[in-house]
Amino acid sequence: MIPGPFDYHRPASVGDAVKLLADLGDEARPLAGGHSLLPMMKLRLATPAHLIDLHGIAGLKGICRDGDRIVIGAMTTQAELLASAEIGERLPILHETALLIADPQVRYRGTLGGNVANGDPGNDMPALMLALDASYRLEGPNGAREVAAREFYQGAYFTALEPGEILTGISIPVPPAGHGYAYEKLKRKVGDYATAAAGVVLTMAGGKVASCVITLTNLHETPLLATDAANAVIGTTLDDAALKAAASAARAIMQPASDARGPAEYRIHVGGIMVMRALQRAASRAS
Amino acid sequence: MNDMTPTREQREAALEGMGCRRKRVEDIRFTQGKGNYVDDVKLPGMLHGDFVRSPHAHARVKAIHTEEALKVPGVLAVITAETLKTVNLAWMPTLAGDVQMVLADGKVLFQNQEVAFVVATDRYAADDGVSKVVVEYEPLPVLVDPFKAMDPDAPVLREDLAGKTVGAHGPRKHHNHIFEWSVGDKELTDAAFKKAEVTIKEMISYHRTHPSPLETCQCVCAFDKIKGELTIWGTFQAPHVIRTVVSLIAKIPEQKIHVIAPDIGGGFGNKVGAYPGYICAAVASIVTGKPVKWVEDRIENLTATAFARDYHMTTEIAATKDGKVTGLRVHVLADHGGFDACADPSKWPAGFFNIVTGSYDFPVAHLSVDGVYTNKAPGGVAYRCSFRVTEAAYCIERAMDILAQKLGMDPAELRLKNFVKPEQFPYHSALGWEYDSGDYHTAMRKMMEAVDYAGLRKEQAEKRAAFKRGETREIMGIGVSFFTEIVGAGPSKNCDILGIAMFDSCEIRLHPTGAGIARMGTKSQGQGHETTWAQIIASEIGIPADNIMVEEGNTDTAPYGLGTYGSRSTPVAGAAIAMAARKIKAKAQMIAAYKLEVHEDDLEWDIDGFRVKGLPEKVMSMKDICWAAYNSVPPGMEPGLEAVSYYDPPNMTYPFGAYLCVMDIDVDTGVYKVRRFYALDDCGTRINPMIIEGQIHGGLTEAFAIAMGQEIRYDSEGNVVTGSFMDFFMPTAVETPHWETDFTVTPSPHHPIGAKGVGESPNVGGVPAFSNAVNDAFAFLGATHIQMPHDYWRNWQAAKNLGVVA
């Protein structure tokens, strides 16, 4: 549990950070909250020669409204998300989910940007970003670009980030007022990754589901957008048959690993239950 | 007398003696971060050691290349088995009569086994060195399943034992067999089964788990070449035993070894034995002439340092149709891993598992235990229990529920029908123990009344009907557990460790001003000895507990003792305290008689001093006697006021308790909720009720963890899959249920203060209560026995196997 040697850098601007990454190449890793990277370094499963700490870059923090979108700096912590009234009002699903991430100590240090950029299938926020159709701002040696969260995740720890790029911000369209939402996470204990989790954002009209997005966490090597499952409930009253159809469609795309949380068969089974419970709870919150 | 004269009640309260909820004196430093643990020991020039460990569960070690590691800046030495052979320390004896590799000698037998020890100027350099040691392995077939250990074609694990048909505990039947141990009358038991009206048989497994104390095992060894003395600071539950073992195996005279156990952050049996890290740090210090620190990390602790349980218990009960038990037959397959490193008294290869008749009056019983080697870490320590008592309690308490189910009887009723009766004590069990005291019926009935047992069963019947009608997906379980422990090892006629009888000791010295110090052979790891030992002295000799300092853990100053584990401190050392105090009191009485100018027999004890019978004003307080002991003792008497007692207990003590757990389980996800947990404990005389309650809370939390998910699990290649707190279930306050505690008091008749020991009862009694609740929840769906641990996915699996989830 002792990391190997590395050099520590603390740039003051995104430009400096990008330059350091470009100069140092593959041997350098950006450091946000560190909750994924530092344990890997302590186990010597990751041995970067250079750590580029992003905490010195003031511009990477904060939450602001930009027209019909909310823009969140990558280094904004889970605790800061929870403290934001704007988030609580416009994106309440982020509050619900942040409270399910680890424990207060972790949330004081862990960042939204680190959570979504790492490509860890166990992280909770990527599924929400898919559900909310967020986009990520990536800055690198060739300038800045926006990539949709739904296009970002390519495999476990494998994302659209190019060498030398840093994820600097998250832009989320504000969902319509009166939307229903829920994030259902089954975990073994506080601090655990999901055995299975499902996020739902929907709107209701005349007692029926008008629009719906369903996403899944830790049930595949990437977060999943369960389009067929969502289509199975649109236009329904979320009756028993519709819920079961959604669970069944969602289960069809799940491919979790068997691990200490249970065999794949179990994780797929409860994944479907998380979908049904999230749908019911989201609908109960919609107006 | 005037208004300022304290009343008798005030004088009694001022002592804070036995029965007082005295606040823990050690918490003043612990709650302020001022404890002094092994890792706080920092000596000038101190070096750091760390292990190269095997990634394989079974492999031949072809070569170890250390050249690149020795080039790492700061790395001073890499110790291997070849180095240790030069000082005859490549192998070490275990407490169970086996031998264990200190560092891999030709092969490795479990994943994360110690292969080489890198010594460096700091911890970072040591780990850099570890990463540069190259070991060539040739993988061998792996044996994980203990049930396959004695197959004819099972791989040979212990090549060093080739041709040895007799081990430390008798004949060996197979190359992977360690011992067979049997107790009881086989013929009579078989006969009872032949004529039984009803029998049950079930293979009840208690899975492998781990004590996982918050502070891992660690030491600092400092060898003084000039004096030829070795000082060891270590996480030792039994410091004197460590001193003797080190002296015997390192051939250093015992007076030149100083063992110091400072504050310890939890032990739970994990810190009783000796580990390769201690030997390697000591050798490294002798070789380099500098102090060497070794601190294991969490993964090392979980995967390589002394596991617990791993008992597979085929259990049969014979009974009459109306529910009277007539016989018990148990066979245990015990998985000991690669070496037999159980920490049991030397003559007891399966500990006190023969307490397996529990609280019930079995006329006959027979038990046999086969120990086998597998490619898993060694250990088999008593994780917060007296030796193998938790396994025994789980075995009988599950089996009684299975019998009740077969008979269609209520499990509480079945227990009441078969309890040993109060008038049968001292009770001789069919497997050879003499239970000292008990009143099981009173405890059981008090529990049933407190929880409204009949009401719970009624509610359960309604919920079951609702489940069958499809109105709910939740099932309700009521887990009853009634346990009898055997603690306080132990009488010299039964118990020794490497030939040393398992007495314990206390030395009390009183100072002229009415204060004193008590030094002990025990060692607290969180039990609160500094608080409770002083309370016994306060009650015995009338000196306020606040005026007594308790010191443990330094073998140079403490009297020889066997340490703290197996709930032995109160039964054995607690008795030694009382006996030492009584010696002091006898001398104090002579001094008081001399000073009050009366005959000793004319004095009587009164809370905090002596008074002349019939003349209540003529008194001499213990405080004044202390002063007199140093200036005006009777002619011919030596001055001073001190005493030592080495207490060899005449018998074990037998605490017991009645526990009940109410649990709801969602069959679709397997998620459970402990709705209620009630624990009634009878530990005899209660020294500090607050500390007892704290012990119960802690032990129940461990029991909850073990029953509901905590395990050391291996895959088929012998890889540990639960090697960190991510996967090894360590509940937080969020997961932990609310605990209700209660008690009855049945003093031990042979103990000087009637106390029995309590620290481990909740772990012993708690596990069956949780497991019985889960099994009871599923029983109406057709389940007879579902193996632990009962984590979410296994509960769901059980529901699926019973056909209630698709």
From TrEMBL, chain B:
Gene3D superfamilies: Aldehyde oxidase/xanthine dehydrogenase, a/b hammerhead, Aldehyde oxidase/xanthine dehydrogenase, molybdopterin binding domain. NCBIfam families: CO_dehy_Mo_lg (TIGR02416). Pfam families: Ald_Xan_dh_C (PF01315), MoCoBD_1 (PF02738), MoCoBD_2 (PF20256). SUPFAM superfamilies: CO dehydrogenase molybdoprotein N-domain-like, Molybdenum cofactor-binding domain. Keywords: Molybdenum, Oxidoreductase. PANTHER family: ALDEHYDE OXIDASE 1-RELATED (PTHR11908:SF132), XANTHINE DEHYDROGENASE (PTHR11908). This is Carbon-monoxide dehydrogenase large subunit. The keyword Oxidoreductase applies. One of its GO terms (molecular function) is anaerobic carbon-monoxide dehydrogenase activity.
